[in-house]
Design a protein that fits this description.
The complex is a heterodimer of chains A (about 300) and B (about 400). Chain A has twelve helices and two strands; from the N terminus they run ααααββαααααααα. With about 300 residues, chain A is mostly helical. In chain A, helix 1 crosses helix 6, helix 2 packs antiparallel against helix 3 and helix 5 packs antiparallel against helix 8. In chain B, the strands form five sheets. A two-stranded antiparallel sheet of chain B has the order 1-6. In chain B, strands 2-3 form a two-stranded antiparallel sheet. In chain B, a hairpin with a 2-residue loop joins strand 2 and strand 3. Helices cover about 65% and strands about 5% of the residues of chain B. In chain B, helix 4 packs parallel to helix 6, helix 9 packs across helix 11 and helix 14 crosses helix 16. The longest helix of chain B has 27 residues.
Chain lengths: ~300, ~400
């Protein structure tokens, strides 16, 4: 039973990280109607940039984190301006394939820039842990859960109270109508990508810290697991992103804890996708998504 | 839903349904046939022979992907899964059991087709973005099965494909001997693979020029409208996935034989391979058979071209004071040759999507249309006794493809 609670806590924490990544996916999807596959690359880049600032360049951790957030927001905005903006109005698949191309480029750039193996991203909480009734809780997990709460609260306020946030929602709802109302649609694109870049840093740092602080080029691939999370939750609902994230995180960690052994191998890597397929077969629009109505 | 751009347009149904729609395509085919026959006679180098044979294997798989994406409008980033499946089929049944060439070829296609048919139903429920993630799931599931089903795949150790039988009747592609000339295994494989490219292309062309092809294109352009008009989404989406899977597995089988060995790729490598195929059909031209072949010929050998031309790319980068591209990580270049060619794939994919979404096939089509328009204008001008103004564009244009 202790093992169960242990895995549950870890699963919820991992799920929280997936929810953060999924948030990045959702923001871009809302505005452009396309899954942004390069999100995985942004998460990877975010973790390494934070390392670069805090490690070799010796900045205090939180300063490095803040600077990395600004950097990645900038990188994402530039990427949007250069390769995504010209594709507005073109078939959505073209945009999707472009984000896949971006993923390849960012992945290879990160692998080429930071070639040294075994780089470690030091966080203030490190690998400290509490013991509560036999269940070990890592500080990193508590930080993650706190961050998720704050981020989602901030997003709620952003989307319901600020002009930029309302502009994004209006653009997501109907680009032409939004433009006719004087909402700068292009700004909505920029802002949504900046947000995607910013949350990617947080997710990248949290993922790294959970995995024992060693930086891994595999982060991009792990981040793609937020896609099943987002799909399970339903694409257009931030609340769904949390639910989906936690479902995927808990399944993955439980699978790792109970099923992984020599004969079954690494079940955790496919568990999110299997859960996604099962949920999709049962509810094609996810758990909390709006049911799509198709017009002929 | 149109995927990227509308693709083929001919003036009439009979014209569109010919095996070779224009005189140019007959000429093109003849040139291609001569090239295939002549290349091994000219190229003696085993390395480049293998590279070109691999490009052929990619072409087979790319034709399959193009049927799925270019004609039926279903995007897949999991196509490497089918290649992997084909590879393991030949390792197990061909190399280990010694089943003859036609049998393992057929079996690879059958297994690929069956797996494709299993994925097809998902395309009925999910479209676009969702389906892309489902194909991603297929890719990761395949990697998982390959790593863990050791009795069939050899697990992480991989499996040899070297001893797979390569003879059909009196012809042995391993030690091919034609017209008194002996060929190496590499040259034999080149012939085998490019014959298969031809066969795949004919099957694909016959498919897309007949009823199923038109049905798939109707589904691509608007699947619900097609359904209402009596085109069964169930039939054709599953068929598209199945055929596409069969061709990709066939390509994967001969590719694995060419490599002599198959071992599990990491999930990210599989993803990159899949994306390479997407790049091949975009660069070559969506919704054209020859586009897939041209794309495979250009992008397939790219890693080897980078590797072999490292001398051009290893200039020292100012400021960083490192060579631009090093052969391996040990050379300390800004990029390794492998990373650099992956980046090239990504960049080419993006550039073509942005500036030439109809690919190379679209370029040549536009060029032909422009030449035809110029010829027509000349004739008309001569008829009314004036000289045609070469500078002005014909407003009606013969931009037939748009």
């Amino acid at each position: 039973m202790e093992k169960f609670f242990q895995l549950l806590v870890a699963g919820i924490a991992v799920g929280g990280i997936y929810a953060i990544i999924a948030l990045g996916f959702v923001v871009v999807y809302k505005v452009s109607g396309t899954f942004n596959f390069s999100q995985g690359g942004l998460v990877l880049l975010g973790a390494f940039v934070t390392y670069q600032y805090s490690g070799p360049w010796g900045m205090p951790f939180f300063v490095a984190l803040a600077l990395a957030v600004v950097t990645l927001a900038g990188v994402a905005m530039v990427a949007e301006r250069v390769v995504i903006r010209p594709m507005i109005g073109k078939p959505p698949f073209a945009m999707l394939l472009i984000t896949i191309g971006l993923l390849v480029i960012i992945e290879q750039l990160v692998r080429s820039i930071w070639t040294e193996p075994g780089l470690v991203l030091k966080t203030p909480w490190g690998n400290d842990r509490y013991d509560i009734a036999g269940v070990t809780i890592r500080h990193a997990d508590l930080w993650t859960m706190g961050t998720v709460t704050v981020l989602f609260a901030a997003f709620f306020v952003f989307f319901s109270r600020t002009d930029a946030g309302l502009g994004i929602r209006a653009t997501a709802f109907d680009q032409e109508a939004a433009a006719a109302q004087g909402i700068p649609v292009s700004r909505a694109f920029s802002v949504s990508w900046a947000i995607a870049g910013a949350v990617a840093v947080v997710a990248g740092v949290m993922l790294t810290s959970r995995g024992g602080s060693a930086l891994s080029p595999g982060l991009g691939l792990i981040s793609l697991r937020a896609l099943p999370a987002m799909i399970i939750g339903g694409l257009d609902s931030p609340g769904g992103a949390i639910a989906g994230g936690v479902i995927v995180g808990v399944t993955e960690i439980m699978a790792q804890g109970y099923l992984d052994n020599d004969t079954t191998g690494n079940v955790a890597t496919i568990a999110p996708y299997v859960v996604m397929i099962i949920v999709l077969l049962w509810r094609p629009s996810g758990l909390f998504g709006t049911r799509a109505v198709e017009r002929v | 839903m149109t995927v990227i751009d509308r693709t083929e347009f001919r003036e009439s149904l009979p014209a569109a349904s010919r095996l070779l729609p224009t005189r140019m395509s007959l000429v093109g085919l003849a040139i291609a046939a001569v090239l295939v026959v002549a290349t091994p006679l000219v190229v003696e180098d085993d390395f480049w022979m293998t590279v070109l044979a691999n490009a052929g294997a990619f072409a087979i798989a790319a034709i399959g992907l193009n049927i799925l994406t270019g004609y039926a409008g279903q995007v897949s980033i999991g196509h490497a899964a089918f290649l992997t499946i084909g590879g393991y089929v030949v390792a197990y049944f061909g190399a280990e059991r010694g089943w003859p060439l036609p049998v393992w070829l057929l079996l690879a296609a059958l297994v690929g087709g069956a797996i494709g048919a299993l994925v097809g139903p998902f395309a009925l429920r999910f479209r676009g973005n969702y389906l892309v993630v489902v194909t991603l799931a297929l890719l990761f599931l395949t990697v998982y099965v390959v790593e863990n089903w050791e009795s069939f795949t050899g697990g992480f150790d991989g499996a040899s494909t070297n001893s797979a039988p390569l003879s059909i009747g009196p012809i042995d592609f391993r030690e091919l001997s034609l017209f008194g000339k002996d060929f190496t295994r590499e040259q034999g494989m080149f012939y085998l693979i490019w014959i298969l490219v031809g066969a795949t292309a004919v099957v694909a062309r016959n498919l897309v020029r007949s009823r199923p092809g038109r049905a798939m294109q109707a589904i691509r352009d608007r699947d619900i409208a097609a359904e209402v008009a009596g085109v069964s989404n169930v039939h054709y989406k599953i068929a598209a996935f199945s055929i596409s899977g069969a061709m990709a597995a066939l390509g994967g089988a001969v590719y694995a034989v060419n490599l002599r060995f198959i071992s599990p790729n990491s999930p990210i490598e599989e993803l990159f391979i899949s994306i390479r195929f997407v790049a091949i059909i975009i660069v070559g031209g969506l919704g054209t058979i020859h586009g897939a072949i041209v794309g495979a010929l250009i992008l397939g050998p790219l890693p080897e071209l980078v590797q072999e031309n490292i001398g051009v790319l290893d200039f020292t980068v100012p400021l960083l004071d490192k060579p631009f591209v090093g052969e391996t990580a040990a050379d300390g270049g800004v990029f390794t040759a492998a990373a650099f060619s992956e980046i090239l794939f990504g960049v080419l994919l993006i550039l073509f999507l942005m500036f030439q979404p109809t690919g190379i096939a679209g370029m040549s089509r536009k060029l032909r249309a422009r030449l035809a328009a110029r010829a027509t204008r000349h004739d008309e001008a001569r008829a009314v006794g004036e000289i045609a103004d070469e500078g002005t564009e014909d407003p009606a244009g013969t931009t037939a493809h748009e």
